[in-house]
């Protein structure tokens, strides 16, 4: 009997038990008793206790069983004959697939011989697993059925299960964070075995060109990440912000303080569209329309070596993308300043702009700064615009018409360009990812703290 | 399931990618129900993915802009991928380009090396204009747009032009014997000032940039040159102007062979794979579909060998790497 | 201090000339400031308009293709196919081996002379195949049909071609008819290497499957954790940690999720590369925090008085949440979810790292089969050599933007329709 | 007992109440975090009386009222000590299910808070979650009875499907009272039920309280002393978390025993 | 004049006020969108008197007060008709600059709203935007004077650099009064200035109002009738947007002419 079949049988049987519990409780109520919990709760209670532990057991059992089966198969003479290399798991997997009928013929010839053993072992162990699951389900059903009755607080029992579900759902976020840190950390540690972390973090020379492959030219690749981070900051935190901060801030001020309600209700969603446009579209726009324009402009200004992959083009487009982000953060911060401040200032005879400049803006400043930090963290993590429009040359330059490269561009290049897989170069992508993660983490945490603290101040 | 048997998966070089996709597309059109996925992962990680093992979920073929290395072959062997068929699909010429309408340049590998090396022959790089290198060359600033270090084209450029130019100096050839590391640095490191700019992997953009900027030289694969002859023209190298012909007979010095590797053991279970190889063979014949995409067909003798490998599914042995 | 004369002095102060001048200056400053604000909004809207118009004008022609007339005489051609055999499922396989390309070339030479050979390409073969499958009886007679020309001629006819293309277009116009038709193939076909034959259907299906996976995972998990955090979570270190990680995940660069997907789903769990399943999983992890945050805000906005009311008649906390709070918060949660989904739909960066940067020329058949998604298709096309891809890329962008706008409009509609003022 | 905690209870009023109290609070303290909001309050609430809680803003009236049906459990920082019983049962005992306690001790809030559902569903919600009815006819009956008792039936009987929030403020408040009645409670707690209403609606509610008296034990918080005088039989005066004085309404208003009560009633603060 | 609009004005009190009224409102209507919040109100406010506005919640007290310095201009939906004058000048006239009007008719709000700046800057803000001082010494003088008049100087003179929000509620409210005084207004409008304060702070503010009387014309909204009785010389009773009765405070509280006033004062509603 397969575990799948066992699962279905358990679900059906426990379902029957639950509906039986339901009708029994209904009968009690018809008899005039005032129930503590509604019949449906009793049914759910029985179902949960009957089915869930058994299913959890099966879930845990499945990988265990796979392990047992594999050991059993390896203990056979044919199994022992297999070499213990990367080859073995593939053969085993295939033999198993053959045994379960997932595939009809094998790629590895050894797999065919092993299939019957697999079939036997799987049969044996699934019987054991199914039996235990039945016992667990039976016990669960039996004991929960016994509690069903007028005064039994089935609802509380069911709610505890739901609570468990809620807790598990909320832990997904923790696991994701953990997953990110771990998956980046392992590769980063391997990278730091090859490259000195000090050189990586503080080196001024990013030029992995020399270390693509062992047999290729040169072996002393330079992995100084400062130029990448400079490029990231130059594009995301400087150029983009020069565009986004004034436009976003003044837009927010206009929309909150001056625009009539109707106009505001139109303009706000329109601005939000800017944030909704996919970044690949911005990237295309930057590469095809903005970058040539910027270059032409630079040439017209007499700058001869203007790059068509200028920091300016990518930065400006990124800034446009960030405008609504800045404006909605500023909007929130301004809205959080109590209307009483506005009234207080107007009542003294200040004009609206004086009120904004001298009272509202200073009061909202911490929130606005927090919002800008969040915007910066978004900008430095942005990928597609820079992949499509920024350059690959790791220049340490402050000339906006020059080409710079960013961390995200390098991650994409390192992981999808031509390279050898286990080289320091590939691993460097993960190290860059980890550093980027920590930078945005610190920025975000700090910014969120600022924003929240600031909001609480007025609540 | 029967469905996955007719799904083929190809990974590997971005240089070979356009050729394989073209074959795949035609192949799918001709065979209802067959699906071919081509992913551009780069040759290195393509090899790694390819050698992971046998099985329905494993990749069936890998595109390569260079020959498989013995280390990769051994990796494959240890994972049970023992029957590997090497298909040499054609030649790609690494080309220097300039804008259409300018006077056609003619450079030698040595001149290119001297202009672009970080430390030509171990000395300091001082050349700013082409005329600094040789008085015959125009008195114009050196401005080259080249592939980034992450691309296979860069490898080829270093291997096919830079090292050749470097070796023209006998002292350098000696250096290779005595101090290999030093040699590599001197011969393959490219300057990083404004004379050499790394372009993106988007070769189409590179074409546009070069065509828009007289005096600029670009480096890319020959297939792109044919597409865009209205905008750009090839630069002659060592006296040979790259054309389909000069590349085909390997007269052009910077030509390279492109490969596709196939898992022989998969052919048995996936009949589609065998048909795919046949379709590929069809496509690389002179006048075949790949020709129209800019791939130069192999010379007669080599092509016969490749045809034989495709027909007979000749597998590689360790001996083939000697 | 308070004599009437002093008061009078005070009143005079407001009417003095210096004060009047000062007031004028203040009002001028006020107007300037307001103008700045208006200019900022105007500029932002102008950027948006420019972007949209730019894409629309570039991409509009991508929805059309040029067709030229040709007369094919099947009985006289090399095409030897029995019309009856085309009734079955394998009609296309049969036709693909039937030498249609040659037939078209011959017909073109007949109509346009030697140069006409270059007029039609693969897209014409595909179009003719479609016609024959629809109407096999065409094989029995001579037919006058319109077939799509090669991409080069197409571009020339649309006014942006090479010299050779121009010549061919002129030839076609002179000797036959050449016309621009809506390009249905663009909506029904999948990726191809020839810009004349490409379509977005495969990518759309891929996007659809991916987004379904994303939604099925992210929505329930997001809503449940929002409920937990907002309604049940005790104030302690653990809850703080959950909150911090959710807020942080919402702002983690999307490419980091790609690295996570690569390490966990591909390298560790060995799920198939390029599959909507993996794309969906990765995007779900990215979208989930957005839903949690939107969900929490929506739940927070449900007034406590509703909770009190339900508790007051003896509902349990869980009943309060599931009977009252969640239904009332639902519009807000949905708004946030749609916006999160729209973002996921347009996301490219993380998918680059999990094998979706692939050439897949037929629509995926399930969440485990090879696929690409619309934004990835745009990225791939933007990288293509052939100039014909420029308009196709922009056309695909138009489609993607239409989806975005529709989803955003839906979110705004929901927000306005169900916005509650308590 | 220290000075601030001394409460004046009328010995005189005790005989007027027949039988044991419906609810009894003894020495109840309530803390919000470290802050003590209620200090050693003891009060009895009787079946057939309306008890009014008065006192200046922030003195703890609402807090104390909410301890009586454990609504304070929902505030994480709140902590209650002392003994409270309903019909002699400890309401904090393990055997006491808080959900059922709240069904037995209903509550009406300051701002009318109907569910944003139909009038019918507003009333039916309580009986449904408690499983008080088994079919639609029974439910219809319960809804009608509850609305009748709350004096709302005639006004809404033709529009039971309309949303409860579409009613006027006073109607909404009566709807909330009907909703509380529908689960057949024993005690009804009202926290400033009229403070958001206009005078006419206020008069209606006061009338309703008159009618409900005797059927339910009623405790009402009000900041309007005239209202307390009009509707209640017993009045408790709170100040800074302590119960200053508790006794028969007439006496409290005419002849308070404490200076603080006197000051409050004459408008010295609040 | 229809019934609801009939206002009782004391003829008897008129002689007690010397000279013309500081402000005069005639037949003022205020609309919020379609809804009329103030209906035909006419009132005079005198230089040396405190005028109290009382009435149940929502009757339009605040709305009317805000028309007096055109603060209602800041609410987009609000529309004012009728005639209001300050020292005989029409405040809606083109020649009247609203910015200066508000400097001359100061306002203090229900909740203290100091700017989140230093105490000094809170006071200096008004004089600075109006350019009332030319140097630091003058400004220091203005700040000190204003704080002295608001009775706050002694409490804050050593901490002028501290944030205004760090003060206690009562101090904040006095800071707001000082801020209003600093631009040397002629009228001060106060909208329930004590409702957010504790009794002690309330007493301080009431005392301050006593002291300011005579220097400024003062209008104060309050919901506390005892407070109105304590601080004002004239009282206006509003109900449902109309001015029901206006006259000398003593008379209004002891001998109202209207039944509605009577009802309100004795706590029948509100
Ligand atoms: N959730 C809470 N957390 C902390 N403190 C609270 C909370 N609720 C009330 N308090 C405090 O407890 C004290 C008593 O508050 P309560 O609401 O019981 O007063 P009240 O007499 O009902 O006042 P009001 O007439 O204004 O309703 C007050 O000081 C209040 O600030
Ligand atoms: N901004 C506004 N928009 C629309 N209606 C308003 C606005 N402000 C007040 N109102 C309405 O105008 C009427 C008068 O309100 P106002 O605030 O003047 O009353 P009030 O007497 O000050 O009451 P309270 O004692 O509660 O402060 C009320 O019905 C109120 O709902
Ligand atoms: Mg209260
Ligand atoms: Mg008011």
Automatic annotation (TrEMBL), chain A:
Keywords: Cell inner membrane, Cell membrane, Membrane, Phosphate transport, Transmembrane, Transmembrane helix, Transport. One of its GO terms (cellular component) is plasma membrane. Residues 230-447 form the ABC transmembrane type-1 domain. GO terms for molecular function: phosphate transmembrane transporter activity. SUPFAM superfamilies: MetI-like. It is a multi-pass membrane protein. The keyword Transport applies. Its main location: membrane. The chain crosses the membrane at residues 6-23, 44-64, 122-143, 164-186, 228-249, 270-291, 311-330, 359-380, 427-448. It holds the Pfam family BPD_transp_1. The keyword Lyase does not apply. Belongs to the binding-protein-dependent transport system permease family. CysTW subfamily. This is Phosphate transport system permease protein. It comes from Sphingomicrobium sediminis.
UniProtKB/TrEMBL annotation, chain C:
Pfam families: BPD_transp_1 (PF00528), DUF3333 (PF11812). Coiled coil: none annotated. The keyword Chloroplast does not apply. Keywords: Cell membrane, Membrane, Transmembrane, Transmembrane helix, Transport. Residues 204-411 form the ABC transmembrane type-1 domain. It is a multi-pass membrane protein. The keyword Isomerase does not apply. The chain crosses the membrane at residues 35-56, 200-229, 249-271, 277-299, 320-342, 395-414. GO terms for cellular component: plasma membrane. PROSITE patterns: ABC_TM1. GO terms for molecular function: phosphate transmembrane transporter activity. It is found in: Cell inner membrane; Cell membrane. Belongs to the binding-protein-dependent transport system permease family. CysTW subfamily. This is Phosphate transport system permease protein PstA. It comes from Sphingomicrobium sediminis.
Automatic annotation (TrEMBL), chains D, E:
Keywords: ATP-binding, Cell membrane, Membrane, Nucleotide-binding, Phosphate transport, Translocase, Transport. Residues 1-16 have a biased composition (Polar residues). Residues 23-265 form the ABC transporter domain. Its main location: membrane. GO terms for cellular component: plasma membrane. GO terms for biological process: phosphate ion transmembrane transport. Residues 1-24 are annotated as: Disordered. GO terms for molecular function: ATP binding; ATP hydrolysis activity; phosphate transmembrane transporter activity. It comes from the Bacteria. It is found in: Cell inner membrane. Gene3D superfamilies: P-loop containing nucleotide triphosphate hydrolases. Part of the ABC transporter complex PstSACB involved in phosphate import. Responsible for energy coupling to the transport system. PANTHER family: ABC TRANSPORTER I FAMILY MEMBER 17. This is Phosphate ABC transporter ATP-binding protein PstB. It comes from Sphingomicrobium sediminis. The lineage of its organism: Bacteria, Pseudomonadati, Pseudomonadota, Alphaproteobacteria, Sphingomonadales.
């Amino acid at each position: 009997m397969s575990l799948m079949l066992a699962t279905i049988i358990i679900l059906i049987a426990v379902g029957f038990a639950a509906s039986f519990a339901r009708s029994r409780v209904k009968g009690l109520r018809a008899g005039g008793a005032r129930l503590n919990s509604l019949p449906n709760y009793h049914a759910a209670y029985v179902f949960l206790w009957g089915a869930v532990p058994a299913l959890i057991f099966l879930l845990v059992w499945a990988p265990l069983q796979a392990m047992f089966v594999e050991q059993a198969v390896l203990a056979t003479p044919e199994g022992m004959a297999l070499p213990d290399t990367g080859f073995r798991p593939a053969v085993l997997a295939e033999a198993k697939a053959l045994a379960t009928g997932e595939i009809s013929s094998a790629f590895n010839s050894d797999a065919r011989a092993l299939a019957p053993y697999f079939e036997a072992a799987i049969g044996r162990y699934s019987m054991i697993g199914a039996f235990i699951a039945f016992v667990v389900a039976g016990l669960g059903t039996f004991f929960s059925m016994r509690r069903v009755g007028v005064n039994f607080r089935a609802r509380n029992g069911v709610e505890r299960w739901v609570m468990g579900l809620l807790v598990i759902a909320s832990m997904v976020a923790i696991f994701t964070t953990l997953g990110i840190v771990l998956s980046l950390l392992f590769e980063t540690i391997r990278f730091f075995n090859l490259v000195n972390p000090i050189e990586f973090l503080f080196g001024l020379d990013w030029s992995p060109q020399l270390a693509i492959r062992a047999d290729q030219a040169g072996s002393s690749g330079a992995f100084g990440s400062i130029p990448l981070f400079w490029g990231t900051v130059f594009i995301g935190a400087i150029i983009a912000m020069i565009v986004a901060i004034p436009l976003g801030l003044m837009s927010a001020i206009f929309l909150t303080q001056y625009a009539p309600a109707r106009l505001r209700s139109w303009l706000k969603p329109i601005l939000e569209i800017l944030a909704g446009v996919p970044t690949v579209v911005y990237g295309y726009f930057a590469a095809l329309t903005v970058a040539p324009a910027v270059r032409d402009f630079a040439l017209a200004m007499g700058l001869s070596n203007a790059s068509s992959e200028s920091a300016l083009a990518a930065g400006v487009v990124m800034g446009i993308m960030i405008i609504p982000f800045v404006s909605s953060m500023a909007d929130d911060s301004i809205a959080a300043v109590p209307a009483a401040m506005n009234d207080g200032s107007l009542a003294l005879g200040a004009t609206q702009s004086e009120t904004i400049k001298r009272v509202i803006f200073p009061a909202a400043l911490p929130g606005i700064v927090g919002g800008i930090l969040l915007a910066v963290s978004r900008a430095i993590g942005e990928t597609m615009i820079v992949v499509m429009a920024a350059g690959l040359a790791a220049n340490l330059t402050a000339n906006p018409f020059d080409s710079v490269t960013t961390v995200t561009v390098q991650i994409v290049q390192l992981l999808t360009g031509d390279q050898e897989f286990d080289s320091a170069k590939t691993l460097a992508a993960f190290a860059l990812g980890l550093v980027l993660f920590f930078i945005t983490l610190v920025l975000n945490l700090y910014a969120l703290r600022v924003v929240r603290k600031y909001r609480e101040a007025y609540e | 399931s029967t469905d996955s048997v007719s799904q083929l998966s190809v990974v590997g070089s971005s240089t070979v990618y356009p050729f394989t996709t073209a074959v795949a597309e035609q192949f799918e059109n001709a065979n209802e129900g067959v699906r071919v996925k081509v992913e551009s992962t780069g040759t290195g990680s393509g090899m790694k993915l390819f050698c992971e093992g046998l099985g329905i979920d494993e990749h069936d073929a890998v595109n390569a802009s260079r020959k498989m290395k013995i280390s990769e072959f051994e990796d494959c062997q240890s994972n049970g991928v023992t029957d590997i068929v090497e298909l040499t699909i054609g030649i790609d010429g690494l080309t220097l380009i300039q804008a259409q309408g300018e006077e056609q340049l003619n450079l030698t590998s040595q001149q290119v090396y001297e202009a672009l090396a970080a430390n030509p022959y171990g000395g300091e790089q001082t050349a700013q204009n082409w005329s600094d290198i040789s008085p015959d060359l125009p008195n114009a600033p050196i401005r080259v747009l080249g592939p980034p270090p992450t691309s296979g084209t860069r490898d080829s450029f270093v291997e096919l032009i830079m090292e050749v130019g470097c070796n023209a100096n006998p002292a350098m050839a000696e250096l290779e014997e005595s101090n290999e590391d030093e040699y590599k640095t001197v011969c393959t490191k490219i300057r990083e000032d404004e004379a050499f700019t790394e372009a993106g992997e988007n070769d189409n953009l590179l074409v546009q940039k070069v065509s828009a900027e007289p005096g600029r030289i670009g480096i890319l694969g020959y297939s792109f040159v044919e597409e865009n002859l209205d905008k750009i023209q090839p630069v002659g190298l060592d006296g040979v102007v790259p054309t389909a012909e000069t590349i085909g007979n390997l007269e052009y010095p910077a030509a390279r062979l492109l490969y596709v590797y196939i898992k022989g053991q998969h052919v048995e279970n996936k009949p589609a794979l065998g048909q795919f190889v046949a379709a590929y063979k069809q496509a690389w014949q002179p006048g075949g579909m790949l020709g129209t995409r800019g791939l130069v067909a192999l010379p007669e003798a080599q092509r016969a060998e490749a045809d034989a490998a495709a027909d007979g599914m000749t597998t590689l042995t360790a001996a083939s790497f000697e | 201090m308070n004599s009437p004369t002093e008061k009078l002095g005070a009143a005079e102060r407001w009417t003095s000339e210096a004060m009047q001048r000062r007031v004028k200056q203040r009002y001028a400053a006020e107007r300037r400031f307001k103008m700045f604000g208006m200019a900022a909004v105007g500029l932002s809207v102008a950027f948006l308009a420019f972007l949209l118009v730019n894409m629309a004008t570039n991409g509009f022609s991508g929805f059309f293709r040029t067709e030229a007339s040709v007369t094919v005489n099947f009985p006289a051609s090399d095409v030897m196919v029995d019309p009856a055999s085309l009734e079955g499922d394998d009609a296309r396989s049969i036709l693909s081996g039937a030498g249609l390309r040659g037939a078209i070339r011959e017909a073109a030479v007949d109509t346009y002379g030697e140069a006409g050979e270059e007029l039609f390409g693969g897209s014409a073969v595909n179009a003719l195949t479609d016609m024959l499958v629809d109407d096999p009886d065409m094989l029995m007679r001579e037919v006058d049909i319109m077939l799509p020309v090669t991409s080069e001629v197409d571009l020339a006819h649309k006014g942006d071609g090479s010299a050779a293309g121009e010549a061919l277009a002129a030839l076609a116009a002179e000797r036959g008819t050449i016309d621009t038709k809506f390009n249905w193939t663009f909506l029904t076909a999948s990726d191809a290497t020839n810009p004349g034959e490409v379509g977005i259907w495969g990518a759309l299906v891929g996007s659809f499957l991916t987004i379904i996976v994303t939604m099925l995972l992210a929505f329930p998990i997001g809503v449940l954790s929002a409920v937990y955090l907002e309604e049940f979570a005790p104030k302690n270190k653990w809850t703080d940690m959950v909150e911090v990680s959710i807020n942080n995940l919402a702002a983690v660069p999307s490419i980091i999720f790609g690295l996570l997907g690569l390490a966990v789903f591909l390298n560790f769990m060995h799920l198939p590369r390029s599959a909507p399943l993996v794309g969906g999983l990765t995007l779900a992890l990215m979208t989930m925090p957005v839903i949690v945050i939107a969900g929490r805000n929506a739940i927070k906005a449900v007034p406590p008085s509703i909770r009190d009311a339900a508790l007051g008649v003896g509902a349990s906390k869980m009943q309060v949440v599931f009977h009252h709070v969640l239904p009332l918060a639902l519009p807000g949660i949905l708004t946030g979810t749609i916006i999160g989904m729209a973002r996921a739909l347009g996301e490219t960066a993380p998918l680059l790292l999990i094998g979706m940067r692939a050439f897949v020329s037929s629509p995926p058949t399930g969440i485990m089969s090879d696929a690409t998604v619309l934004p990835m298709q745009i990225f791939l096309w933007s990288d293509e050599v052939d100039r014909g891809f420029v308009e196709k890329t922009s056309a695909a962008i138009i489609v993607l933007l239409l989806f975005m706008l529709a989803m955003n409009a839906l979110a705004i509609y929901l927000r306005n329709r169900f916005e509650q003022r308590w | 007992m220290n000075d601030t905690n001394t409460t004046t209870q009328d010995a005189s009023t005790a005989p007027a109440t027949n039988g044991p109290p419906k609810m009894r609070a003894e020495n109840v303290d309530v803390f919000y975090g470290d802050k003590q909001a209620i200090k050693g309050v003891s009060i009895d609430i009787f079946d057939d009386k309306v008890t009014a809680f008065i006192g200046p803003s922030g003195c703890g009236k609402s807090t104390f009222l909410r301890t009586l049906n454990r609504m304070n459990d929902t505030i994480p920082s709140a902590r209650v000590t002392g003994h409270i019983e309903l019909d002699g049962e400890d309401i904090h005992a393990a055997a006491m299910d808080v959900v059922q306690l709240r069904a037995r001790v209903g509550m009406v809030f300051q701002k009318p808070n109907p569910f944003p559902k139909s009038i019918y569903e507003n009333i039916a919600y309580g009986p449904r979650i408690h499983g008080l009815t088994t079919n639609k006819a029974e439910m219809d009956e319960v809804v009608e009875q509850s609305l009748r008792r709350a004096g709302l039936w005639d006004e809404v009987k033709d529009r039971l499907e309309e949303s409860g929030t579409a009613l006027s403020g006073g109607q909404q408040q009566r709807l909330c009272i009907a909703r509380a009645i529908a689960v057949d409670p024993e005690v009804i707690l009202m926290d400033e039920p009229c403070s958001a209403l206009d005078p006419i609606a206020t008069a209606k509610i006061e009338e309703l309280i008159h009618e409900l008296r005797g059927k339910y034990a009623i405790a009402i918080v009000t900041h309007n002393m005239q209202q307390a005088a009009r509707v209640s039989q017993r009045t408790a005066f709170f100040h800074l978390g302590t119960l200053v004085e508790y006794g028969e309404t007439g006496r409290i208003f005419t002849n308070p025993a404490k200076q603080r009560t006197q000051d409050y009633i004459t408008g010295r603060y609040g």
